[in-house]
Amino acid sequence: MRRRVISARDLVKTYGDFNAVDGISFDVPAGESFGLLGPNGAGKSTTMRMIGGVTQRTSGHLDIMGLDPEHQGPEVRAHLGVVPQQDNLDEELRVRDNLLVYGRYFGLPRAYLEQRADELLEFAQLEDKAKARVDSLSGGMKRRLTIARSLINEPKILLLDEPTTGLDPQARHVLWDRLFRLKEQGVTLVLTTHYMDEAEQLCDRLIVVDKGKIMAEGSPAALIREHSSREVLEVRFGTDRNAAVVPRLEGVGERVEALPDRILVYADDGEAALEQIRNRGLHPLTSLVRRASLEDVFLRLTGRSLID
């Protein structure tokens, strides 16, 4: 069994009367890609800040590689790479200089940093941008540079807070590839996301978080098997008609969920469910059969969509 590099027990963070994190517990073994999946405001970023030692916990126990981040913050941060939700690169510096200057905060020797910066620029596919100013980079390039910078001290754990928010699909997939490579090198990844496809692609295991509490835990595939059907049929009858149609769908598939803009029918065979609906004299304006996803898991557990 792989050793645990992160262990949280009954972790609580309170702001006044508000529990941002409300008694969560989890373990992360070395080399795992572990995710916190949930909507904005679920407590994911607060949990990450407690792991990084920049936010003090209200109560509970937190162990990072045998260290308490609250009392041994510098020692913990020496083993961590942190990719914040918003890029905080130095726009005035050139791309390579961002890596060199950041590395000096760790007291790393210049000769080491020169070599490491070149390695990381190659890893981030930014070699040809080494002398460019940061403000000339695209959003995807800035994100890759932020990740490269977080690796300057060869961290054992990489914390990524919403790593691909705001990126176009192509830039997201390039970033996913870089993260896969890190995982192959044995780096432990801990990431927050509200993108279901990202969690399914990147996470070996995850916790579904809502309102500061853990709703479910497991691999993406196991969570989908446990909380959803194999397929989902999405039908639309028009915004004004969807609610009226729902009672007429009773008995179709395993269950039916009505959302403001569409109706979800959970079934092992989505096409067969659609045929049932048509046989009842109902003709949706649009229909789509897809495989079940973590979005459906979250909807089942909380009664609402991941992105409200």
Automatic annotation (TrEMBL):
Recorded GO MF terms: ATP binding
InterPro entries registered for this protein in UniProt: AAA+_ATPase, ABC_transporter-like_ATP-bd, ABC_transporter-like_CS, ABC_transporter_ATP-binding, P-loop_NTPase
Membrane topology type: Peripheral membrane protein
Boundaries of every ABC transporter domain copy: 6-236
Protein location: Cell membrane
Annotated PROSITE patterns: ABC_TRANSPORTER_1, ABC_TRANSPORTER_2
Keywords per UniProt: Antibiotic resistance, ATP-binding, Nucleotide-binding, Transport
Similarity annotation: Belongs to the ABC transporter superfamily.
Name of this protein: ABC transporter ATP-binding protein
Organism of this sequence: Sinomonas terricola
